[in-house]
Design brief:
The structure is a single chain. Helix content is 66%, strand content 10%. It has 145 residues and is mainly alpha-helical. It contains 2 helices and 3 strands. This is DUF4124 domain-containing protein.
Length: 145
């Protein structure tokens, strides 16, 4: 019986000395500009600090926060995927434009070379035609006997 009384007395004293659920939270900035958050008061040299009450845990609010966080993560993932798709499309369009430009340049060079060849061939044919005319006039061919 004595053990039971000691047990209950210890339990009651222990429960009475446990700090409350509503702990106080402290926020202050030190001389180096570092922000500190604590459930213990700041050192005595700190002149100004902010003191607030800690909110009780609310399972429903926590569940809603988790759902909102998941939705935000899905949206962020979709946004990042869309940006990646857009960058890839832009890169593809740029690459295709560069290929088209290179193809146009190649065709122009081919056309230029073809025209140069035609001009050279025409010049040669004109020269040979002119030589034939001259050669017909100046060469005498003796008839065969």
């Amino acid at each position: 019986m004595k053990n039971i009384i000691v047990f209950w007395a210890s339990l009651i004293i222990g429960l009475c000395t446990v700090p409350g659920v509503h702990a106080e939270l402290y926020l202050w900035t030190d001389e180096n500009g570092v922000k500190h958050y604590s459930n213990e008061p700041p050192p005595p040299e700190v002149q100004s600090f902010e003191k607030t009450k800690e909110d009780e845990f609310d399972p429903d609010a926590d569940h809603m926060r988790i759902l909102k966080d998941r939705a935000w993560r899905r949206q962020e993932k979709a946004r990042i995927a869309e940006e990646k798709k857009q960058r890839e499309a832009e890169a593809k369009a740029k690459s295709e434009a560069a290929e088209r430009l290179a193809e146009e340049r190649r065709k122009k060079e081919e056309e230029k070379a073809r025209l140069a060849e035609e001009a050279e061939a025409e010049k040669k044919s004109h020269w040979t035609e002119e030589n034939r005319r001259k050669s017909k006039k100046s060469v005498y061919v003796r008839p065969a006997k």
